[in-house]
Amino acid sequence: MRRYKKKSETDKSKPDMSFVKSLGKGTHGSVDLFSYTKDDGTTFYNAVKISDYDSVDSIDREFRILSELRGCLGIVQSFGDSLLQGTDCNDTEVFMMPMEYAAGGTLTNFIQRNRKMSDCHIKDFTRMILQGLVSVHSHGYVHCDLKPDNLLLFPRYDQETWNCSNELKISDFGLSTKAGEKSDCWNTDSPFVGTPVYMPPESIRDGGSVEQTLDLWSLGCIVLEMYTGKHPWTGVGLDNVKPLLLDGKAPEIPKSVPCDARQFIEKCFARKPEERGSASELLLHPFLIVDDKVASVAAGGERHRMVLRIRKPPPSLEDVTEKPSRLKIISSKSSQFKRVLKKPLKVKILPPRSPRSNFVPVQ
C-alpha cells in the first residue's frame, strides 16, 4: 500500500499526538481532536480523520483529492505526504489523516446557534462556498455530498479591533468523483449519490454520470436552510423525496425569503442541469453583488465597510476677498417702535401684594 506508512516509521523529530476529544463520527470513520507540543513548549491542534480498513478506499480518495487542492481557496487543508497507519485502543488497524482544526464547528452548528441568520451572513457564506466549489470544479471534481455538516467554520480575529469573523471551508471529500464519471455510491438500494435531501433529480438516475451542476443544486438547498433554519424537504419522508424529485418538484421556498435570494435558489433548482450555470457564474448573480450603499458584514463578525463621499471644498479665503463686500445697515429699532416712542409714556403703580404664606405672625 504505497500511500500508508506506520506511525513508528515517521520522523521521530515530529511531536507526538495527544488525544483531546472526539469531534464526530460519520459513515466512513470518525474525526478526533489531537494536540501537539513542540520542543519550545508551544501547543497546536489538528483534527484527525480516522478510518478502519473497510473504509480505506474512501479516506484514500479524500487524501488524494485534498493533496491536489492543497492551498486552494475555500478548501479544508490536510497535512503530510501520506496517510498515517496505526492501531486504535482495540488493536484494530486504522488509517489517519491530519487536517486543520475548525474551532467554529460546522455550518449546522452555526445555524442552530443563530436561528435567524442575517442576510449579510448568508451572502458571505454563500460566496465562500462558491469560491470553494470553483476550486473543486476547476480541478475536475464533483464534491457529491455538499451539506452544512461538511462545511467548517474557522474563526479569524482582527489584530487591531479583535473583531471575530468566520472563514468557511468545504470538507469531507470521501464521496467526491471526477466529473463525467459514474459514482461508486450509485446502486439500486441507495439511488442517491450523497445525502438524499440535498440531492438533485439527476442523482436518482442510476447509471448516469456525475456532473458539477449536481453541487449547485446542493448549494441551493444550503442557502434555503440558512434562511429557514430547517432542512430541505422538512416534513417529507425520505421515501417520498425520490418520487417528488422525479415528478419535477423542488424544496419549497417560503415567501419570507427575499426576492433576490429566491431567484438565486430557483436558478440552483433548475430542472435542466445546464441552466444552473457554473460556480463562477453564480458568483456574479445579483444576489451576491455587493451594494456600496449596504454595509458588508464579515461572516460571524460585525465589521462594516464604510462609504466615504468627498465633497467639493469651500472657496478659499483669497477667492472671497477678491470680491468687494456690500454692507447693509439695518436699524436696531423698528418703525413701529419709533412711533410708540413719540407718544408719552404712562406709568401705573400697583400696590404690593401680600406674600403667599400660611404662617401667622406672632405678636
From TrEMBL:
GO terms for biological process: signal transduction. One of its GO terms (molecular function) is ATP binding. It holds the Pfam family Pkinase. InterPro entries: Kinase-like_dom_sf, Plant_MAPKKK, Prot_kinase_dom, Ser/Thr_kinase_AS. Residues 17-288 form the Protein kinase domain. SUPFAM superfamilies: Protein kinase-like (PK-like). It comes from the Eukaryota. This is Protein kinase domain-containing protein. The lineage of its organism: Eukaryota, Viridiplantae, Streptophyta, Embryophyta, Tracheophyta.
